[in-house]
Amino acid sequence: MSQRPYGALAMAPYARASALTDEVLDRLRGFADVEPALLVGDFADPAARDVLGRAEFLVTGWGCPPLDAAALDAMPKLRVVVHAAGSVKHHVTEEVWRRGIAVSSAADANATPVAEYTRAMILLALKRAFTLSAQLSTMGWPGPDRRQPSGIVRRTVGLVGASRIGRLVIERLRDFDVRILVSDPYLDEAGAAGLGVELADLDTLVSTSDVVSLHAPQLPETHHLMDARRLALMPDGGILINTARGSLVDTDALVRECASGRLDAVLDVTDPEPIDGDHPLLALPNVFVTPHLAGAQGTEIALLGEYAVADLERFLRGESMLGAVDVAELPRLA
């Protein structure tokens, strides 16, 4: 009888509890050996030495320590790291790639809740639901003078980034009578046509869209992508939605635009993050802020564990992993 693959879990207890449910662990233990009671939070922990020395795979999650040279030296048999969460940038180091260890991420599974959140926010923001709701207690029921043009029909939605999330948002807007513009330096005309959208440079997109939704990664070149100049290009009544990273937006400039009443904003991410309770954004009726919850939450997190375990099974069967991370693509991933 051939020996079953052996591996370890490296994540915080809360990540194990939410991502690796009993059902997910049962599937994992159906094709591999793992000790679910042992969660590695420190690769130098003597209690983990034997397990790590035998591990052919790691299932990682939030709270996994960096996989640096010292950690990998303790895992001479390691062949693959499957991450039951989104970004791998916090724990997968250059040393992992140098040693030829395969890496998979459940970012695709995490993208779906973000896309659903974005679609919901687009619909509600275009209805001016957040602003009118916030004004009910002080200004009462809105009369015709306070009802701005609203609704999604025949509006223009601009997506900054044809990322995995951006593409899912495109799919979820197909049932609506909307014009979709996309700005992405890695998307060409043929690719845009394949997605059924119009390719636009960022300034054109910003100046002609009723809603601008950000789906770009946090990179040096995307810092304050939406600066004072670009925010000023947005038409009066425009709506900015950010589910990407807070640093993509110049917060001070956004406060000025929203405080004037010219723009509305829906922010699931902020700069700084977390945001202080007395921050001016929180006092504006036309700004809706949520605490970085667009991604998988609660029962949705098990989807990340299911995705990771399924990818591990594919790898062990000699198949391609759906969430395989390409080191060449890493710089422009979230």
Automatic annotation (TrEMBL):
State the PROSITE patterns in the record.
D_2_HYDROXYACID_DH_2, D_2_HYDROXYACID_DH_3
Q: Which GO terms describe its molecular function?
A: glyoxylate reductase (NADPH) activity; hydroxypyruvate reductase [NAD(P)H] activity; NAD binding
Please give the InterPro entries that the UniProt record associates with this protein.
D-isomer_2-hydroxyacid_DH (IPR050223), D-isomer_2_OHA_DH_cat_dom (IPR006139), D-isomer_DH_CS (IPR029753), D-isomer_DH_NAD-bd (IPR006140), NAD(P)-bd_dom_sf (IPR036291)
Q: Which SUPFAM superfamilies match?
A: Formate/glycerate dehydrogenase catalytic domain-like, NAD(P)-binding Rossmann-fold domains
Asked whether the UniProt record includes Nucleotide-binding among its keywords, one would answer no
Q: Which domain of life is it from?
A: Bacteria
Q: Where is the D-isomer specific 2-hydroxyacid dehydrogenase catalytic domain?
A: 63-325
CDD domains in the cross-refs: 2-Hacid_dh_8
Cellular component, GO, one term: cytosol
Q: Show where the D-isomer specific 2-hydroxyacid dehydrogenase NAD-binding domain sits.
A: 120-294
Q: Which UniProt keywords apply?
A: NAD, Oxidoreductase
Q: Which PANTHER family match?
A: 2-HYDROXYACID DEHYDROGENASE YGL185C-RELATED, 2-HYDROXYACID DEHYDROGENASE-RELATED
The family this protein is said to belong to: Belongs to the D-isomer specific 2-hydroxyacid dehydrogenase family.
Per its record, how is this protein called by name? Phosphoglycerate dehydrogenase-like enzyme
